[in-house]
Amino acid sequence: MLRLIAPVIVFAAFTAWSCFITWSQGYWGFLDVAVAGGWQSQVFVDLCLALSLVSVALFRDARQEGIKAWPYLVLFPFLGSIAPLAYVCHRQWRRLRG
């Protein structure tokens, strides 16, 4: 059960925080960081690369688990890390069900 509760708590907390940031700064507010140069640009590109690698792993894992990967992969560009967090919650919920 902890394998489900922990990802759900992280998913809920991060999603709530992300919604608050998006509401207060706008959806495209993250682009200010991406074009600022220096470390900000490096971190943004690093995040994009990391999410690309996660999407490959998610696709393979979803195939093994019998879960459709496409909804999560479509959400990646729009929701960032929220999409794989939702996938992990979905996977753990299915495993608990049995």
List keywords for this structure.
84% helix; globular; mainly alpha; 98 residues
Mean pLDDT: 93
What is the CA–CA distance across the termini? 12 Å
Tally of helical segments: 5
Helical percentage: over 70%
State the gist of this model.
The protein is mostly helical and 98 residues long. 84% of the residues lie in helices and 0% in strands. The protein is globular.
Give a verbal description of the structure.
The chain is mainly α and 98 residues long. The protein is built from five helices and no strands. The protein is globular, with a radius of gyration of 15 Å. The model has no long low-confidence stretch (mean pLDDT 93).
Secondary structure layout:
Blueprint: H1 2-25, H2 30-34, H3 39-65, H4 70-79, H5 82-97
Helix pairs in contact: 1-5, 3-4, 4-5
